[in-house]
């Protein structure tokens, strides 16, 4: 997609252009972006300049936004697509949905704190596909992955098959209130597996998290729940032992505290450990040991002991430690 000329000169040797790119990137990433879109040669020069992205996040609601954080100057670029409300509609496998055809325009917001306290914005006409934009940004900022895909209000308007095809999988998926239970289920079916998942029961039919989610292996599982769901769903699947790998699970809760342990553990054989009893828990991969103070012990169906811990700072959450042989380090007094 050819762009208008920029202040970066093309008549210089490549080594000098690359140096100019590095200097310009400290004050104007939009200038670098425009230059990279002129030709494949320009894109190659920007890529060679070695600008380093710190993260790439995608948020999907009424529109799609790609946010890129840049290491060198703590700057941020945001790209907004599909802002035109009556465009892009077509028929997909799940009915009439917004298709990820080439967006008509792109709004680029740039924030460089070392240069200005304000955000600089620019609107660009566009003929390139969404897939092209994602690949281009990943290439010029030398960051080949997506850290987070966040689904929020009205994201159900988009075709989930197109989302999967363009964005693939991310390290983390965060499902907020999209406005459609069925779409949230489709996210789990199409975007999972991922390393990290953030969900809330209220965003699913009957406020029930699909049991298979609790039986999968995640490095990080964030569930915003209350006492009733904790009792009926989560402890059941943790006790069942169908997900044998995780040593640790953390669950954010809005209203669960240690005094509620009898409610949470109702119907499950357990033992309350005094708060002054401290045990060392050693995760795999040489991570630092954790000291478990008190808690509630119970045995999973596979015979492995687990402990439920309550934390109330800075906000309530519940943690589960699974005492595999390599995790046991003894008591500390």
Automatic annotation (TrEMBL):
Top-level taxon in the UniProt lineage: Eukaryota
Protein name in the entry: F-box domain-containing protein
Organism: Caenorhabditis brenneri (Nematode worm)
């Amino acid at each position: 997609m050819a762009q208008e000329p920029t202040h970066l000169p093309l008549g210089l040797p490549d080594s000098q252009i690359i140096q100019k790119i590095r200097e310009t990137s400290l004050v104007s990433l939009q200038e670098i972006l425009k230059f990279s879109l002129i030709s494949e040669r320009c894109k190659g020069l920007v890529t060679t300049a070695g600008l380093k992205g710190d993260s790439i996040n995608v948020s999907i609601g009424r529109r799609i936004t790609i946010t890129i954080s840049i290491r060198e100057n703590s700057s941020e670029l945001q790209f907004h697509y599909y802002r035109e409300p009556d465009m892009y509609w077509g028929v997909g496998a799940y009915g009439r949905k917004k298709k990820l055809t080439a967006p008509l325009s792109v709004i680029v917001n740039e924030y460089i704190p070392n240069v200005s306290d304000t955000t600089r914005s620019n609107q660009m006409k566009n003929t390139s596909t969404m897939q092209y934009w994602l690949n281009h940004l990943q290439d010029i900022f030398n960051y080949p992955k997506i850290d987070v895909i966040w689904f929020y209000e009205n994201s159900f308007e988009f075709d989930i098959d197109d989302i999967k095809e363009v964005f693939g999988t991310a390290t983390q998926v965060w499902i907020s209130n999209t406005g459609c239970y069925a779409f949230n289920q489709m996210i789990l079916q199409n975007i999972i597996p991922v390393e990290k998942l953030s969900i809330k029961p209220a965003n699913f039919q009957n406020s029930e998290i699909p049991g298979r989610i609790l039986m999968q292996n995640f490095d990080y599982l964030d569930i915003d729940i209350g006492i009733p769901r904790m009792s009926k769903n989560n402890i059941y699947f943790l006790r069942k032992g169908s997900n044998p790998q995780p040593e640790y699970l953390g669950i954010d809760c809005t209203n669960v505290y240690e005094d509620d342990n009898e409610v949470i553990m109702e119907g499950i054989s357990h033992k309350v450990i005094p708060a002054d009893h401290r045990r060392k828990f050693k995760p795999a991969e040489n991570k630092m040991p954790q000291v478990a103070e008190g808690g509630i012990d119970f045995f999973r169906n596979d015979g492995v002991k687990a402990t439920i811990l309550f934390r109330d700072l800075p906000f309530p959450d519940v943690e589960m430690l699974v005492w595999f042989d390599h995790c046991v380090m003894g008591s500390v007094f």
